[in-house]
TrEMBL record:
Signal peptide: none
Keyword vocabulary terms for this entry: Antioxidant, Disulfide bond, Oxidoreductase, Peroxidase, Redox-active center
Record SUPFAM superfamilies: AhpD-like (SSF69118)
Gene from which this protein is expressed: ahpD
Protein name: Alkyl hydroperoxide reductase AhpD
InterPro entries: AhpD, AhpD-like, AhpD_core, CMD-like
Family the entry assigns: Belongs to the AhpD family.
Species annotation: Terriglobus roseus
GO BP term, example: cell redox homeostasis
Family annotation (PANTHER family): ALKYL HYDROPEROXIDE REDUCTASE AHPD
Length: 178
């Protein structure tokens, strides 16, 4: 199913999600095409919803190069790992964990091949979805130091919040259709 058809098929109780998707993605005026579609891809992957992810990746291929698409997926993948590891640091009262080396490979943070700020914004979106305060602070600080405005960051977070909310609605819809 195409992404537009999937969004248009959301039930009436999720009308706000349809409207927000339309204004934030279909009629985007705040983000570059790469920022927008990378955020949509990374956020969809982070939802773990197969139908949404498949539709988003198919549509994003019309807006991103293969390298940009892979980088957005890579942001979701690496943050899936890092958000768990660093959220544990944040949640544990034992400060020693923060002094130990991570010993996790994170090469993609330097080898993704896209604009550094865009990759950081995608990582920030996934970190927000996954609820890792330590990673949110880190990625927000990096992009702010590199000149990204709070308005751009807020636009990315709005997009990821809507994409994330669509995942559970599609799960409910699939569960009750059977």
């Amino acid at each position: 199913m195409s992404l537009d058809a999937l969004i248009d098929s959301l039930p009436d109780y999720a009308k706000d999600l349809r409207l927000n998707y339309s204004s934030l993605v279909r009629n985007n005026t705040e983000l570059t095409k790469q920022q927008l579609w990378g955020t949509v891809v990374a956020s969809a992957v982070a939802t773990r919803n197969a139908a949404l992810t498949a539709a988003v990746v198919a549509e994003a291929a019309n807006h991103l190069s293969a390298m940009e698409l892979d980088a957005a997926k890579a942001a979701a993948a690496i943050m899936g790992m890092n958000n768990i590891y660093y959220r544990f640091h944040h949640l544990s009262s034992n400060e020693k964990y923060s002094t130990l080396p991570a010993k996790l490979r994170m090469n993609v943070l330097r080898s993704h091949g896209v604009d550094h700020n865009d990759f950081e914004l995608w990582s920030l979106a996934v970190s927000a979805i996954n609820g890792c305060g330590k990673c949110v602070d880190s990625h927000e600080n990096v992009v702010r130091q590199k000149g990204v405005t709070e308005e751009t960051i807020a636009a990315v977070i709005r997009v990821c919040s809507v994409i994330h909310a669509i995942g559970p609605v599609l799960e409910e819809k699939a569960a009750t259709a059977a």
